[in-house]
Write a structure and sequence with these properties.
The chain has 601 residues and is an alpha/beta fold. It is 34% helix and 18% strand. It is built from 19 helices and 21 strands. The protein has a nine-stranded mixed beta sheet with strand order 13-21-20-14-15-19-16-18-17, with helices on both faces. A five-stranded mixed beta sheet has the order 3-2-1-4-5. The two termini are 39 Å apart. The model has no long low-confidence stretch (mean pLDDT 93).
């Protein structure tokens, strides 16, 4: 039984393939097209999945698309009609594209792929729920999905047991937690569907002074986590912006223009909407436990990428255990759609879970040493090939000496996080590494935090976390014995320059960190590298940030990695068993023109 899942046409298009219920491969189209959040038809991702599964399209039993286009089109039409005449301009811009490309998905799939087999269309939140429950280690769980909007639903509560996921309750458009958060993302000058994680990272610099105004004016929140938004403050229903003039008046003036200075207002707005979002997540989770009868909780949807909220939920005592789909946004819908087809449509039996079926989310393409060396030889790249032990020891020593290392290994990760196979690594003990990585490697805002990768067996010694966090989706505090005293009166971006812990480069200004735990089963080479670094420094933690520059998708191929390595101030690149030192390479011509290739996020 082979099922191909597809998501596309909104953002983060992707494909995934199941064989007899086992997840064989999954990838986002952006990694191949080099267009971040690529919404287009995922022809390259599909081609990769078929190649990884070693099959042709004729062997696929069904293709499952992650939502119902006609139901979504109905919602869009009804919304425009409800806002006439204000919605006419927005309708004029979007409806022709909808009718031409998005509505006739069946015809588009058959035309693009030449496929004559079965096509299935689960609902959007059904796909999210399936992506959360079926790969989880639970036999029974509550399922909570939260995003911008699917067809009509914006959040849903469900339950999973055996081979079924049931949706029990929904919150419908325009009342959306994801769109509320995106409205503040837009208003603080960041890009919607891309910059929400910046808003989350900005929140600890501010104070939640606007939280009560949000409760009083913007949202009517109920005990079960459901709510209604006051749409007089928002323009996403019918207009071309997220917020209205009334929103701007409430919060002291117009939205910040992108790339301009970030002020106290933006910091406080970020802190305020983050606090409100966390409260809504907690109430929704509590109601999910009540309706599902399970204290295990699975999360998906874009809001499930709010790792600060996830961490607070885990610590709240509302649930006993939590599992979050690492590709929680629309990309993960491809996996969920395939699971719905396998278990709901074809009624296959779900085996008792033996653990986390996402396999560390290492589901993308890999490149052999031979393929990497062929690329290097063809392009005149100078390298040395090392046996495993020497490779690990020399890279750990380089990190300990302050080098920045591009680390390109094994299968590419699925989802928005680099998890040790397409990563840039550094020494978390360094007082300057956070600034160096932001300004000289990633070319992004200096306030952005970096994540620690820590040995699973050492996590509780360094962080206030007693469980696994393999997908970098939980935030927890740095352990008290590793913290240092700071000045309590420090405000705003001045907090950046304080040494807060023994690992300052990964300690955010509220003494927290977005943690990835690394085990030897899923990623033995990365685990060995961190273990070697630990032996040399006494620190079982390294900085892990995605292998890309700002606005660029995470690298996929050796060519992508080489180009990023040479354009930035990385010191060495380790691809497979091959080591490339920057000092050995011929310099690229001095130019910043390449930065124009990528739209800033």
């Amino acid at each position: 039984m082979i099922i191909l899942g597809i998501s596309c046409y909104y953002h983060d298009s992707a494909a995934a393939i199941l064989r007899d219920g086992e997840l064989i491969a999954a990838a986002q189209e952006e990694r191949f097209s080099r267009r971040k959040h690529d919404p287009g038809f995922p022809r390259n991702a599909i081609k990769y999945c078929l190649r990884e599964a070693r099959i042709t399209l004729n062997e696929v039993d069904a293709i499952a698309f992650y939502d119902k286009p006609f139901l979504k089109f109905e919602r869009i039409l009804e919304t425009y009609l409800a806002f006439v005449p204000r919605g006419i301009l927005s309708a004029w811009k979007s409806l022709p594209l909808w009718i031409r490309e998005k509505l006739w998905i069946s015809d588009r799939i058959r035309t693009e792929l030449g496929y004559e087999g079965k096509l299935l269309f689960p609902e959007h939140h059904e796909s999210h729920a399936a992506s959360a429950f079926f790969p989880s280690p639970f036999t029974k769980a509550g399922v909570l999905t939260m995003d911008g909007v699917g067809e009509w639903a914006t959040s849903s509560i469900g339950s999973g047991e055996g081979n079924r996921v049931k949706l029990l309750k929904e919150l419908n458009f325009p009342h959306s937690l994801g769109l509320l958060y995106s409205a503040f993302t837009y208003f603080t000058g960041f890009r919607v569907n891309s910059g929400e994680y910046k808003l989350m990272g900005l929140a600890p610099y501010g104070e939640p002074v606007y939280a009560q105004q949000i409760y009083d004016e913007l949202i009517d929140l109920r005990p079960d986590g459901s709510f209604r938004l006051n749409m007089a403050y928002f323009d996403y229903g019918a207009g071309l912006k997220m917020t209205s003039r009334k929103f701007a008046k409430l919060f002291g003036g117009p939205a910040r223009k992108p790339e301009t200075a970030i002020g106290k207002r933006e910091m406080d707005l970020a802190a305020s909407v983050q606090v409100v979002t966390e409260e809504i997540m907690l109430r929704m989770a509590k109601h999910t436990v009540e309706l599902s009868g399970s204290r295990n909780l699975c999360l998906a949807g874009g809001v499930a990428l709010n790792c600060v909220g996830n961490g607070k939920l885990l610590r709240s005592g509302i649930v006993d255990d939590i599992w979050i789909q690492p590709a929680a946004g629309d990309a993960g819908g491809a996996i969920g759609a395939a699971y719905v087809a396998h278990y709901h449509y074809y009624a296959q039996q779900r085996p008792t879970p033996a653990g986390d079926a996402m396999q560390g989310s290492y589901l993308g393409p890999a490149f052999s040493d031979e393929e990497i060396s062929m690329f290097a030889e063809a392009n005149g790249c100078k390298y040395r090939r090392m046996p495993e032990r020497d490779l690990i020891e020399s890279t750990a020593e380089a990190l300990a000496c302050g080098e920045v290392v591009g680390w390109f290994q094994g299968r590419m990760e699925f989802g928005p996080r680099a998890l040790g196979n397409r990563s840039i690594l550094g020494d978390p003990r360094s007082e300057v590494m956070q600034k160096t990585l932001n300004l000289k490697i990633k070319y992004r805002e200096s306030f952005r935090p970096f994540a620690p990768s820590v040995l699973q067996e050492q996590v509780s010694d360094w962080f206030e976390l007693e469980t696994e966090s393999p997908y970098m989706l939980l935030v927890a505090g740095v352990a008290a014995n590793h913290l240092r005293k700071t000045a309590p009166e420090t405000r705003g971006f001045d907090k950046l320059y304080e040494l807060r812990s023994d690992i300052p480069a990964v300690t955010h200004v509220d003494n927290s960190a977005r943690i990835q735990t690394v085990n030897g089963r899923w990623n033995p080479r990365y685990h060995a590298l961190i273990s070697s670094f630990w032996g040399k420094t006494g620190c079982p933690v390294v900085i892990n940030t995605s292998f890309n520059v700002r606005g660029e998708p995470i690298v996929c191929t050796p060519e992508d990695a080489w180009r990023c390595f040479m354009r930035t101030k990385m010191d060495r690149l380790v691809m497979g068993s091959l080591v490339f030192l920057k000092k050995d390479q011929e310099k690229l011509p001095e130019t910043d023109d390449w930065k124009e290739e990528f739209v800033l996020d």
